[in-house]
User: Fold this.
Amino acid sequence: MFSARPHRKFIVAFAVAATLALVSAAAPEDPDAGSTAIPNRKVADMLFELALANRKVYTRDIVQRLASGDGAITASEHYLDQRGLPLPAQVFRLSAEELLGSTDDFWLQLRALDPINFANGPITPVEEEGLQFVAENPEQPFYAEERGLAGRPSLVAVYADVANVEACVTCHNSHPKSPRRDFKLGDVMGGIIVRVFLD
Ligand code: HEC
Assistant:
């Protein structure tokens, strides 16, 4: 005898399938699909480019330009006592300190495995891993996520900082506080670390 049951089952199954199709259309798997959100790695890359440009301009258009001729003003580690200009690395550290007070969205640091200034050493195992990675792969940025600082989730991006002029090498190799004295031109001396907080 013909029963109404299979027919009803079919209708229920059809309704469930249609509902699922609607729900999956409303909530696509990729949360950024169709939105204008910038991926976190891209944000880190952009902040790195900005930091690099600022350091380059400071070195080329201020430090190098004022260092010659009458009334030369030179960059020196002891710039406060000597009424000179801070070193580019010191400007970087001062900016990092400013950022700590002005934003908790990201942080920029110039760090090294063998730093002149002890405070510029890696502060988490992931930073250390990143500095080691870029030392061996200078062309490639390092990215990793961690709950590093105050348990806050963050993306850590590390970019190689290379000795591109002889002065980098001579100053670091002869600095009394430098733990490493065998730098050569072209060596990776440290890394720019961009931390983007994800919470
Ligand atoms: C006149 C000396 C001098 C020159 C030239 C110099 N540095 Fe440094 N550098 C320093 C000092 C001093 C510090 C520590 C600054 C601080 O107090 O944070 C430093 C810090 C750094 C750091 C952070 C880790 C650390 O050692 O504390 C890196 C990376 C670095 N320098 C790379 C470079 C590169 C690359 C160049 C060349 C483009 C360069 N430096 C040129 C003196 C110098």
Residues 143 and 157 are 5 Å apart (CA to CA). The pocket of heme C is lined by residues 77, 87, 89-90, 93, 110-112, 115-117, 120, 161, 163-165, 167-168, 171-172, 175, 189-190 (CB under 6 Å). The longest strand covers residues 152-162. The radius of gyration is 26 Å.
